[in-house]
Amino acid sequence: MKTIFLSLALIGCCAAFSFFIPYVEVLDHHNKMRSSIAKGMFVANGTKLPPGANILKLKWDYDLEFGAQNYTHQCPKNVSNAAEFGENIYYTMIEEIDDFQTSGCDLQIQCSVSPICFDSKKIVPLSSYVWNEEIYKQGATCSACPPSTKCEEVSGLCV
């Protein structure tokens, strides 16, 4: 199950963020996907995933965005190996970006795209995600929201 979500996160977030869609729309898309999972309505590889008991509603993190942007502008060939989160780096031709814009993702990540690396036709998106954390706890929607949160009934997400 983790592999499905990570690949969705990489393709959806970073491609969608590539200067064409404001971060608010990326965030909204993430939260709609998370809501679908929380309510047990999400289907992956022909299988309906169980509902999530503790899925949080995402908020944009400007500090993470700033860090990702700084790192991507260095045109990295490898991930930074930061201890607190993992990263994916994907190189593609800018013409291919439109192919990814309808994808989605569901992890709490930020991403950055750099059009300056190598030559003007390439971009370097970077996505980050938290290591060694369970994606979500299976159970009745909102039944295990963290103590400092409450259930948002409409979305089924913990806020």
Question: How would you portray this structure in words?
Answer:
With 159 residues, the chain is α+β, with helices and mostly antiparallel strands. It contains 3 helices and 8 strands, in the order H-H-E-E-H-E-E-E-E-E-E. The protein has helices spanning 2-16, 23-38, 62-72, and strands at residues 43-44, 47-48, 86-89, 92-93, 111-114, 122-129, 151-152, 157-158. The strands form 3 sheets. Strands 3, 4, 5 and 6 form a 4-stranded antiparallel beta sheet that branches. Strands 1-2 form a two-stranded antiparallel sheet. The protein is elongated, with a radius of gyration of 16 Å.
Using only CA atoms, what is the Rg?
16 Å
**Oligomeric category:** single chain
Strand content: 15-25%
Count of DSSP helices? 3
- Unreliable stretches (pLDDT < 50, length at least 5) are 1-20, 94-110, 118-126
Would you identify the CATH H-level superfamily?
A: CAP
Number of domains: 1
CA(first)-CA(last) distance: 24 Å
Mean pLDDT: 69
| CATH domain class name | Alpha Beta
State the major sheet.
4 strands, antiparallel
CATH architecture: 3-Layer(aba) Sandwich
Helix amount, in percent?
25-40%
